[in-house]
Structures are given as structure tokens and as C-alpha cells.
Fold each of these.
Amino acid sequence: MAGVSSKSATKRKIGEENRSYQEKWEDEFCFISGHKEGTAICLICRETVVGIKWYNLFRHHKSKRSSFTEIFPLESNERKNKVANLKLKVVKNIPNFKMMNGGHLQLF
């Protein structure tokens, strides 16, 4: 029968997709790696996005934060400063994160 999967077919799991957070997404979409594996946190609204995929972060940023890119254009110093300030605010409010040398976050 078309469209019917067999019993031996297994459902794909997010953890098995080997997706990882990419540092460039911090400036591009204003996200940092979340405290749980496979999650990312929006620096602006602090929503957690599950399933770290470029499109998921892009969709969140475009649908909810489109004005941010207009106010703070990509690659601008203003945007880099704003993202750094937002990151510091989020880190202060998440007790399990600490800032490492180089501005990277680490769960402890």
C-alpha cells in the first residue's frame, strides 16, 4: 500500500541527527546554544527553539524579529554590540551558564 510504512521502519530522533549549534548563528539570528542538547535560546525573547537547524532559527528570527535586522544590519558594529549586550543579560539570568574566555558559554 502506498504511503504506509512498515513496522521495521523506525522514527527518526533529533539526537541521532548529529546537529550542533554553529557560532555564526549568534550574530546572524541572535541565538545562543541552549542548556539542553539540541536547543537554542533567542537572545531577544528568550524563547527556546528545539531542533537546531538553520531553517528553524531563520524562521523564528524572520517571523518574530524582522525589525531587528532593519535596525541593526548584519555585519554592523551596532549589531555586534547589541548581540553582546543581549547575551550578557541572558547569561546573568540563566544560573547554569557561565561566560568563558572568548565570550563562549559553557554549561556547568
Amino acid sequence: MVSEILGHTSIATTKHVCGRLLVADKRATAEAMSGALSGA
């Protein structure tokens, strides 16, 4: 689902891109995605 929203052709692309984020950035990214997906 997230891969589709981000326009990635595969989950591997999403994993590669997201896996490179710093640990501190992962939480901020998850919160931003949650807000964006919930329309907040």
C-alpha cells in the first residue's frame, strides 16, 4: 500500500529508500505519513 502511494514499483524500492533513513528520522517520517494518510 505504501509503495503504491509513494509511486514505487516494488516494496523493495520502498524498503531501500526508507531503510536508509536515520533512526531519529524514522519516527518523524512515520508521524508525517500517518498524518498525511489520515488527512490531518
Amino acid sequence: MLPVPSPLLLSSSILLLIASVGSVFTDTPNASPLVSYALPLVGVPGGGLLFLCAIRKGQRETEEDDEKFRGGG
């Protein structure tokens, strides 16, 4: 897992996914098609991976907090 807080992972995944999807629908004459299509090709899988990391890390942190609350650790 990445040594980053889970809320930061989640927010960065959301921003990356929004930028990736939004870049498909923009019609900017100054941007090259390579940039317009490379961002979704890299951003969607990357954003999905960050999202999964955030969910798994959040679950693990919750389990650790529950264990501390129950007095087991």
C-alpha cells in the first residue's frame, strides 16, 4: 500500500478520473490529440487503482481502530 492517508488517495483518484473523462469531451484546438487521448488511457486505470487503494487502506485503518477500541491492541 501507499504511505499516504486514505482520504488523500480517494480525493486524488476522484480528481484524476474527472480530469480523464473531461478531457475526452473537450474540443481544444491548441491541445494535441495525443494529450487528449493519453490522459484517459493513463488516468482511468490510474484513478481506478488509486480508488481501490483508498478503499482497502480505509478498511484496514477502520479494522485497526476497531481493534484498539475493543481493547485488543
